[in-house]
Structure formats: C-alpha cells, structure tokens
Specification:
This protein is α+β, with helices and mostly antiparallel strands. It has a single domain, classed as GIY-YIG endonuclease (3-Layer(aba) Sandwich), CATH 3.40.1440. It contains 3 helices and 4 strands, in the order βαββαβα. A hairpin with a 5-residue loop joins β2 and β3.
Length: 119
C-alpha cells in the first residue's frame, strides 16, 4: 500500500528543507520515510507535535533511514491526535515493527476515530 493522505510532500528530509517548508510554532502531523524506485513515498514513522511541528521534525533530521518527509498542519489538539491515528492506521503495515498506537495529548482522553480501534 502506498501512503496516501492529504499531507504536503514528500520533501527531501534535511534541516534546510524543514526550515524552509514548515512554519515554526504550528502544531501538526508528519510522516518520515523514503521513496521507492518509482518515487512513491513509503512511511517508516508517523508522529505529531502539539506545539511546534518544525522543531519536532528537526529532532528527527539526523536519522539517515529517513530520506523524505510529509506533513500536515492541525488546528486543535484533538485534530492533531485524530490525524496521527489516521496516519498510523493507514501506514501501519509499512511502519517500524516496534511502532505503537499514538497516545492522546497529556491531560486529554481523546479516543481514536477508527471504529475498529479500542484506543
């Protein structure tokens, strides 16, 4: 399965591209991965930032297994969590085998929007 969400990207994953592409101080979601021979994006990690997506992406920029990234802004904590859940369930077959279901933001009891998920 190819990673098909409404993310912007994929973009080459390096600090310069992240700083030029992603606005600082915005919450949002991301996927880190690589391109296959046909230039299709395959995620290896999905995540979110509840405060600063640019800073969160920059934390991961030194991991060489991630050559490309995509991202999407979120406008509420609930939206950020629900998008991360959607990304996780869409890409779970391609993610690192140790990937675990996203947790809601601290202090919130949001539920995963996927009806078959018990999180």
């Amino acid at each position: 399965m190819i990673f098909e969400l409404s993310h912007k990207g994929p973009f080459e994953f390096n600090p310069e591209t992240v700083k030029n592409e992603v606005e600082a101080g915005q919450m949002g979601n991301f996927a880190l991965g690589k391109l296959d021979a046909a230039d299709r994006f395959h995620p290896l990690k999905v995540g979110r930032s509840d405060t600063d997506l640019q800073a969160e992406l920059l934390r991961w920029a030194h991991f060489p297994q991630y050559t490309h990234f995509s991202y999407q802004y979120a406008y509420t904590l609930k939206q950020a969590y629900e998008l991360e859940c959607k990304n996780f369930h869409t890409a779970v077959s391609q993610l690192n085998k140790r990937a675990v279901h996203p947790e809601p933001p601290a202090g919130h009891d949001f539920r995963c929007p996927n009806p078959w998920c018990n999180r």
